[in-house]
Amino acid sequence: MTRVVIVGGGPGGYEAALVAAQLGGEVTLIDSDGLGGSAVLTDCVPSKTLIATAEVMTGVRESYELGIRFGARNDASPETAVHVDLAAVNARVLDLADRQSRDIGARLADQGVTIVRGRGRLDGPERVIADCDAGERSFDADVVLIATGAHPRVLPDSVPDGERILTWTQVYALDRLPEKLVVVGSGVTGAEFASAYNALGAEVVLVSSRDRVLPGEDADAAQVLEDVFSRRGLTVLGRSRAESVTRDGDVVIVRLNDGREITGSHCLLAVGSIGPLMPGRMLMAFGLLSAVLAAFFLWRQRDIKRLFGYSSIEHMGIITFAFGLGGPVANFAALLHMTVHSLTKSSIFFTAGHASQTAGTQEMDGIRGLVGISPTIGWGLMLGSLAILGMPPFGVFASEFLILTTAMREHPWATPFLLIALGVAFAGIFMKVQPMVFGESDAPKLPHSPALVPVFVHLAMVLVLGLYIPPALAEWYRAAARLIG
Ligand SMILES: Cc1cc2nc3c(=O)[nH]c(=O)nc-3n(C[C@H](O)[C@H](O)[C@H](O)COP(=O)(O)OP(=O)(O)OC[C@H]3O[C@@H](n4cnc5c(N)ncnc54)[C@H](O)[C@@H]3O)c2cc1C
């Protein structure tokens, strides 16, 4: 019988456990925080339950127009006749989540899944260790599934305190409705909570870094939502990026990057989710290591193809680092960098091939004066090199700029390493390419320059992507960035 060990009891983990058990596997599910995972305990189920109450409140508020009157003398308005007991709402939310979690546990047990409460970790490819209250337990496995989910992202200068600066996992501990809630982040989660608390009766300000809410969704739908928000008195601050959230007694202060300050009684951070920290940090560390080492190795290269081979390693490091940073901007930049890097590198290798064929050697010392021998090869190599070195306005500049500025904002410690990698690589490549293109050579001019149309088409695309990203491509990057998380 196949031994399946699953780490993480959210929908990813428990659904897989049920299927594996139904297919005859011997299944062990290790979960640390409660079956159903974040989906059931803190994210999906609680937020939809809260929204269900909010919808009832909206219905009641709008019932006056339908002829429904409150109070014995028919004179009480719905605004004053009903109010929300948030402690009761939250108690119901948590109770429902807890019951659903127990139902899932019962279904799993019914299917013969062994449930272990503890924190799982891999111990080689075929063993999982669970840190349980009673001590460590070890499970041998033929198949291991890691389904450990994600957790709310927070900004470096906005540390949740669980009382007034909150993530969405913490709002269910509130026993009173916030007087004024500032929601930072206007994606689906931010918009959902802003709308729900507004309907429950709180004053709500939604801070959106983009020019509209739901930046990743359909623009028409977002417009409808904004219209509804403004009709219901919810304030949306567009193009407002929150820099920090701090607390001064009972007041929270949200500072925007243009210097404005928004105050409120509470702040909800809804700036996305991130997966377990470890893989992200490891990606960042290995990415930086590759970029820095490859940049120094560039200096030692004598062969033109190896030179640009090491440059590719440097750029893979930058891309890996960006994916490790995570979040919509860094992921977007990493995807853009993958595109512009491959377009540029294909041009460079094409031209470098012609250059070494013309010179009869791949040794860079033997390649000189390419512009004189063949202007298309010479300029193809020079422009390709400038593009890959991140010179504006080529697209590599745009993606590297995004990665660098995101790193500066979120992980400033990484900035010097990135700058070293970029600076060392710049000098290393430029010093070697410059004499190959413009150096002295007594080789005769080629009677016919090779057809390098694909080279210049690719470089033109890289140039365009530095100035303008077509909306469909940008949307595709955004959707992919969201999937990556
Ligand atoms: C506010 C909000 C609302 C949402 N609403 C919806 C919605 O309406 N519809 C929808 O489809 N999706 C919704 N989502 C998304 C949905 O919650 C996620 O897609 C879903 O939770 C992902 O499931 P998962 O199993 O991958 O991870 P999770 O649900 O996060 O479960 C992972 C589990 O693994 C456990 N775990 C982590 N590390 C370890 C370890 N080392 N050892 C043991 N256990 C570990 C965690 O404690 C957790 O129990 C919402 C998300 C948010 C934030």
Describe this structure in words.
This protein has 485 residues and is α/β, with parallel strands linked by helices. The chain folds into 3 domains: 3-149, 3-Layer(bba) Sandwich (FAD/NAD(P)-binding domain); 165-274, FAD/NAD(P)-binding domain (3-Layer(bba) Sandwich); 277-484, no CATH class. It has helices spanning 11-22, 37-41, 44-61, 78-81, 86-110, 188-200, 219-231, 277-298, 304-325, 327-359, 370-373, 375-388, 395-410, 415-438, 453-467, 471-484, and strands spanning 3-7, 26-31, 114-117, 119-122, 127-132, 135-140, 143-146, 151-152, 165-167, 180-184, 203-207, 235-237, 242-248, 251-256, 261-264, 266-269, 273-274. The strands form 5 sheets. A 5-stranded parallel beta sheet has the order 9-16-10-11-12. Helix 3 (44-61) runs antiparallel to helix 5 and helix 10 packs antiparallel against helix 12. The radius of gyration is 29 Å and the shape is globular. The two termini are 35 Å apart. The mean pLDDT is 92. Flavin-adenine dinucleotide is lined by residues 7-13, 30-34, 37-39, 43-44, 47-48, 119-120, 147-150, 168, 189, 273.
